[in-house]
Specification:
By secondary structure, the chain is of the alpha+beta class. The chain has eleven helices and 14 strands. Strand 13 and strand 14 form a beta hairpin. Helix 2 packs antiparallel against helix 3.
């Protein structure tokens, strides 16, 4: 079975290389914004623009109008038009909003095709800059498809995408488990296990607030303002790493040790609309949990079942099957009015999820 995976590795560039990478990100951002502006202009004129057509127009004028672009790798400007076309395709299909202009310092990155870079142990060769040291070697083997260089806080990373041939290992434990995600606990498993969430944002919220207050008092354009901005970015990066570390360990454990895993199809976007719970929900990382479970199940040979969004996992009694319509979000203990059983709300939901296949087949 073929599967596409990516390995994200931190770069260790010197000052000259860091400046080069920042300029390449700027080229990618400028080209995308140029293409978006032209797309709008042509569309308003009654034309039907495409990413490929805009790329041809840009290539015809870039040497005369934007000669500084030639100092960066070729793909830093050429890939932006493919990204723009993808953004509009998603918009037309209703999967995302209308494309917006990119801002400096926000998701800075640029693309490199597989024929434009080389990997040698703990080094990567990028066009027009040469070899850059890596913090670790590439630990995946397969056909290299592409690479993407990005910046998080003041750190640089390269994400290398590969196509790999994988033979899933047969899992000895053939049981079916249900996993209920929540705010009080990251996950409740139908076997009785509960996993506490990292709550990284909540733990560091006071420190983040102090840094943001200090940032608001600095003068625009000053060096102190840039220092405070970097401190805030580093703290956000640390919070994200703590959250991802827990999710990565949990999803690996579940995928390796259970043959069938049933999870909920949570409407995360709709849940985030509740401003009282939005911060706690984002601190848990529900979407990332689902994303990792889906691709790790292919690697380890487990099977993921996504329960229907309207399946009453929390309100259904796992013992008698009665639906308690009076259950509210504040009720942490499930009390069945029919059979008088009492059980933890999250555990009850997890058990119902483990029975999902049987209930749907009945």
């Amino acid at each position: 079975m073929n599967i596409n995976l990516s390995h994200k590795i931190e770069l260790n560039p010197n000052n000259k290389q860091s400046n080069f990478l920042a300029r390449a990100c700027g080229v990618s951002r400028f080209t995308y914004n140029w293409g978006l502006a032209e797309w709008k202009k042509q569309y308003e004129s009654g034309l039907k623009p495409t990413g490929f057509g805009l790329k041809k127009e840009f290539n015809a004028v870039k040497k005369d109008l934007f000669p500084w672009i030639m100092e960066s790798p070729r793909d830093a400007n050429s890939q932006s038009f493919a990204d723009l076309q993808t953004a509009f395709n998603n918009f037309f299909k209703g999967r995302s909003g209308y494309p917006v202009f990119k801002k400096k310092g926000c998701n800075d990155s640029f693309y490199i095709a597989n024929d434009q870079f080389k990997i040698d142990c703990k080094k990567i060769r990028i066009p027009k800059i040469g070899w850059i040291r890596l913090k670790e070697s590439l630990n995946l083997s397969g056909k290299i498809l592409s690479a993407s260089v990005s910046r998080s806080a003041d750190k640089w990373f390269v994400s290398i995408s590969l196509s790999m041939e994988i033979t899933p290992v047969k899992i000895e434990n053939q049981d079916i488990i249900g996993v209920d995600l929540g705010i009080k606990h990251l996950a409740a498993v139908s076997n009785g296990e509960k996993i506490e969430g990292s709550r990284a944002l909540k733990r560091m919220e006071k420190k983040l607030k102090r840094l943001q207050q200090s940032f608001s008092k600095t003068q625009k354009g000053s060096k102190n303002r840039e220092k405070q901005k970097r401190k805030i970015s580093r703290l956000h990066y640390r919070i994200r790493c703590i959250r991802l570390d827990l999710i990565n360990k949990l999803t690996t454990k579940l995928s390796k040790n259970h043959s069938v895993i049933v999870i909920e199809d949570l409407n995360v976007k709709g849940m985030m609309a509740n401003h009282k719970l939005a911060k706690a929900i984002s601190d848990m990382g529900f979407y990332e949990f689902k994303r990792q479970m889906e691709y790790k199940s292919k690697i380890f040979g487990s099977h993921i079942i996504i329960a229907d969004r309207w399946f009453p996992s929390s309100k259904r009694c796992s013992i008698c099957g009665n639906i308690n319509k009076d259950l509210t979000l504040s009720d942490r203990i499930f009390k069945c009015p029919s059979c008088s059983s009492t059980i933890d709300r999250d555990l009850n939901a997890a058990i119902n999820l483990s029975q999902y296949q049987q209930l749907m087949a009945a």
